[in-house]
Amino acid sequence: MTKPSINRESGRHFLTDRIREEVDWWDTPQSRGDAPPPVQKPVQDGALLFPLPGREEWQIPPCDLTEALSRRESHRRFLPAPLTLEELAFLLWSTQGIRKRLHEAVVLRTVPSAGCRHPFETYVAVLRVDTLSPGIYRYLPLDHALVLERAPDHLAERITVAARGQRFAGEAAVTFIWTAVAARTEWRYAEASYKVIALDAGHVCQNLYLACEAIGAGTCAIAAYNQGLADELVGADGNEEFTVYLAPVGSIA
């Protein structure tokens, strides 16, 4: 079949037809009246919760946005100094924090997301954070708290191996690990979700880069990781939930 020429009229219809071929926007869980998935994974009974300091408690110095943008770069060498709990709370809020809860299934966060679906769960592999023992924690944005998911032995080595031997991943104070719960985005966008989930991940990590500038820290986004090992590290099943991005964070000179 010959592709029609692109002009003001036929071009518009051609593009619309191609979009409809790729995904039937009129046959999604949302259009069928299904309830959207929860915006946050539930916490298991008996899990250890760690409330985080809120914005009113932070002593984070002001950071000029122009300067933060001009200084932003990837860092792979970190000082041995730990992060404070306040600094970790700030970074977590900056990347997935909630600004406003509209109703049970819709929250406005500090980062944009296609259709306000926010598919990510944020895990942090804590190695050096004041008042926290090493382990894998998950951020609970609705509660602005952490829940301890597991405390595996040789955590630094496990992170390094999951990051395909990139040693700085196990030398950071904390490594952010974002997983996607695809059903949250698929509820609205069906098969097209893989595109917007990838875009959403970029929004989140850029916020981390900029927030690091405010606390004298650095980060480096990692997309080269072993999928199975990264999923195993945070307890994701690799199907309904799977790792999409890593970002070690630590103090820098």
Give a short overview:
By secondary structure, this protein is an alpha+beta fold.
Describe this structure in words.
The protein is an alpha+beta fold and 253 residues long. The chain has one domain (35-251): NADH Oxidase (3-Layer(aba) Sandwich), CATH 3.40.109. It contains 8 helices and 9 strands. It has helices at residues 10-22, 65-71, 85-96, 155-162, 168-171, 182-189, 193-214, 227-234, and strands spanning 49-51, 98-103, 106-109, 120-126, 135-140, 145-150, 174-181, 217-219, 241-251. The strands form 2 sheets. Strands 1-6-5-4-7-9-8 form a 7-stranded antiparallel beta sheet. α2 packs across α7 (193-214) and α6 packs across α7 (193-214).
Order of helices and strands: HEHHEEEEEHHEHHEHE
Strand content: 15-25%
Poorly predicted sequence stretches spanning 5 or more consecutive residues: 1-12
The CATH superfamily is NADH Oxidase
* Strand tally: 9
In the CATH scheme, the class would be Alpha Beta
- Total count of helical runs of at least 4 residues: 8
Strand order of the largest sheet: 1-6-5-4-7-9-8
Task: Tell me the overall shape.
Answer: globular
Using the coordinates shown, work out and report the CATH topology: NADH Oxidase
Major beta sheet summary: 7 strands, antiparallel
Based on the structure given, which CATH architecture is correct?
3-Layer(aba) Sandwich
How confident is the prediction overall: mean pLDDT? 89
In angstroms, what separates the terminal alpha carbons? Answer: 61 Å
Content-based structural category:
alpha+beta
The level of helicity is 25-40%
Instruction: List the domain count as a whole number.
Output: 1
State Rg: 20 Å
